[in-house]
């Protein structure tokens, strides 16, 4: 256990979480990252201030955050061509961002990222009523969506003529003329296209990342983890309180076990994020009422792998990533996805795992009602007898549950 002060780089955290948004179902990989690069390039070309560049970059990385949870069943295209869905993901996105430790202005950038220059957008803002960063994210978003996706498939050269025609027809209608000109001038640079190549973009973002050294403290990290737990839970009506429930249980259990305030917070953060990888699992599998096929089960079982993969990208989150990613491992080695066992699983891993099992048993699912506490603990005692979970820890947990 380290005692050094927690300081997490905000940029690393946001970009790793944007990865979770990008690997959500129906998304195509890297949309957020490339949109962020394009928006950043426009902002730099326009000579905007460092603060504006930072906000635009992070705003673009999470511009579609409103799509990840309850809107997960729609494709990006469906959402971007239907006015009702467009409005919904903008509002949801603004709402989620209001819970993150980002500048309040960023809420507007996310909420208005689909406004059209001529006032035809979903909120009817027009011209300079639309915050400039929202306009920049808007043009970058559509440019990415319309042209780079094709490029990914062909690995070929960009069709500059078609892009120019598109910009001509969108000028003063969808986008401010000045922004079209800026984009046209950036497109002249070979570097722009090389940076956007799928194999380069990640390293490029590492290099350019504005506000690299902005750190957040435990409070900020907790806020972000809470916002993401809401996104994760809202993905399915059957899990709408799941992560939050586990987080509450974990907090109570950690207090009961006498952990330090700092460890209690870290455990809570791990609990909030334990199912982060579920953002990658399609809803029709998550919500399937009947028995899952072998393939469907394999896909569901990949979620703790993604939880760990995403969180491990962030320096300083190593132990939280472990506790969160190990919640389906079992002491007897029969869990997943790493087949860890009692030799390597820590007490903290098991705290999250116990809270998860108990919460899952006691909450309603599509195929059954939630169980009473007594019955859930009985099932868990049986699991402990078969060496799936720690008996010692479970007895403490039982004490806690019956004292609640
Ligand atoms: Fe969008
Ligand atoms: Fe988008
Ligand atoms: Fe899980």
Automatic annotation (TrEMBL):
Q: Name one Pfam family in it.
A: HD
Q: Which residues form the HD-GYP domain?
A: 6-199, 217-404
| Gene3D superfamilies attached to this UniProt entry | Hypothetical protein af1432
Tell me which domain of life the UniProt entry assigns to the organism this sequence originates from: Bacteria
What range(s) does the HD domain occupy?
A: 28-146
Q: Which InterPro entries match?
A: HD/PDEase_dom, HD_domain, HD_GYP_dom, HDIG_dom
Position of the signal peptide: none
PANTHER family under this entry? 3'3'-CGAMP-SPECIFIC PHOSPHODIESTERASE 1 (PTHR43155:SF1), CYCLIC DI-GMP PHOSPHODIESTERASE PA4108-RELATED (PTHR43155)
Protein name from the UniProt record: HD domain-containing protein
């Amino acid at each position: 256990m380290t005692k050094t002060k927690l300081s997490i780089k905000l940029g690393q955290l946001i970009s790793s979480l944007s990865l979770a948004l990008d690997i959500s179902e129906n998304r195509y990989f890297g949309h957020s990252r490339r949109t962020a690069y394009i928006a950043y390039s426009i902002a730099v070309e326009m000579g905007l201030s460092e603060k504006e560049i930072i906000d635009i970059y992070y705003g673009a990385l999470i511009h579609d955050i409103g799509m990840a949870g309850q809107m997960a069943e729609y494709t990006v295209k469906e959402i971007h061509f239907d006015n009702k869905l467009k409005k919904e993901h903008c509002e949801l996105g603004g709402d989620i961002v209001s819970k993150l430790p980002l500048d309040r202005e960023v809420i507007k950038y996310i909420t208005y990222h689909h406004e059209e220059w001529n006032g035809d957008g979903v909120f009817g803002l027009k011209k300079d009523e639309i915050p400039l960063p929202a306009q920049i994210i808007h043009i970058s978003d559509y440019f990415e969506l319309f042209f780079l996706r094709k490029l990914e498939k062909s690995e070929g050269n960009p069709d500059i003529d078609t892009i120019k025609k598109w910009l001509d027809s969108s000028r003063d209608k969808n986008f401010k003329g000045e922004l079209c000109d800026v984009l046209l001038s950036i497109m002249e640079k070979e570097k722009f296209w090389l940076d956007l190549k799928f194999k380069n973009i990640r390293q490029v973002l590492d290099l350019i990342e504005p506000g690299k050294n902005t750190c957040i403290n435990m409070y900020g990290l907790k806020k972000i983890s809470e916002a993401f737990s809401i996104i994760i839970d809202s993905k399915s009506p059957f899990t709408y309180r799941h992560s939050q429930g586990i987080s509450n249980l974990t907090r109570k259990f950690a207090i009961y076990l006498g952990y330090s305030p700092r460890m209690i917070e870290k455990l809570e953060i791990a609990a909030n994020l334990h199912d982060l990888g579920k953002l990658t699992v399609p809803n029709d599998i998550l919500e399937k009422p009947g028995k899952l096929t072998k393939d469907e089960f394999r896909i569901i079982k990949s979620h703790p792998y993604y939880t760990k993969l995403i969180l491990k990208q962030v320096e300083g989150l190593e132990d939280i990533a472990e506790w969160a990613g190990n919640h389906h491992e079992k002491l007897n080695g029969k869990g997943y996805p790493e087949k860890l066992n009692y030799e390597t699983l820590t007490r903290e891993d098991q705290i999250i795992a116990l809270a998860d099992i108990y919460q899952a048993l006691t909450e309603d699912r599509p195929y059954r009602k939630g169980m009473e506490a007594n019955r859930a603990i009985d099932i868990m005692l049986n699991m402990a007898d078969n060496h799936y979970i720690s008996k010692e820890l479970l007895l403490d947990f039982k004490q806690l549950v019956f004292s609640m």
